[in-house]
Amino acid sequence: MNNLIGKSFLVFILLFTGQVNSTEQGIFKSDFTSESKVEAKSKHINSQAFDSAIYKDIKKNYQGKKWLTLLWSVDCPPCMKELAIVQSLQQQQRELAIVIINVDTYEESEQQRDKILAHFNLASQTNLHFSEGLVDQSRYLIDPHWFGELPRSYFIDEAGTFHGKSGLASKQLLEKWLIVAQ
């Protein structure tokens, strides 16, 4: 039953954000006892649990470069729009300097998270997720002044300075930050 509710919620979110039209719903409405195309793809999502050691390594890897941290949730319609923008930018430039962090911690969100990332073809990006019981510590680690509003983006410049933004980031802003002039 929870799986049925989760799939229905995912269809609602994607329809609400305009990321899937009514003829594309079939990939989500397939027989709930068999594996849909999105479920098959989602098995290949490599999402690591967020912690201070991983975040420290990420910051070290991007040292001296512009990059973006994007925080999202499976039940956040503006987050879906932002993931769709990242998907379109990824088509322009395969290697994006972005870290995508899912803030959901309940067990049922893991499958939804993977399905959404698969739907937006974001498996090749760095994907992390908060761990159950560590939400407050994870938020504090990223930004002690952030209270959890979503979507949340951090634009990190070459000097390593974090510039936080709550709410949906425009395509123009994300494109300006992520797409390297050729």
Folded structure, characterized:
- By secondary structure, this protein is of the alpha/beta class.
- The chain has one domain: Glutaredoxin (3-Layer(aba) Sandwich).
- Helix content is 44%, strand content 15%.
- Strand 2, helix 5 and strand 3 (98-102) form a beta-alpha-beta unit.
SSE series: HHHEHEHEHEHEEH
Helix content: 40-55%
Structural class: alpha/beta
Report the strand count: 6
Mean pLDDT: 82
Q: From the 3D coordinates, which CATH architecture would you assign?
A: 3-Layer(aba) Sandwich
**Overall morphology:** globular
Largest beta-sheet details: 6 strands, mixed
With helices defined by DSSP (H or I, 4 residues minimum), what is the helix count? 8
* Number of self-contained structural domains: 1
What amount of the residues lies in strands?
Answer: 15-25%
Identify the CATH class: Alpha Beta
Keywords:
182 residues, alpha/beta, Glutaredoxin, 6-stranded mixed sheet, 8 helices, globular
Brief summary:
Helices cover 44% and strands 15% of the residues.
Task: Describe the SSE topology.
Layout: H1 2-16, H2 26-29, H3 37-42, E1 47-49, H4 52-61, E2 67-72, H5 77-92, E3 98-102, H6 107-119, E4 126-129, H7 135-142, E5 152-156, E6 162-166, H8 171-178
Parallel strand pairs: 1-4, 2-3, 3-4
Antiparallel strand pairs: 2-5, 5-6
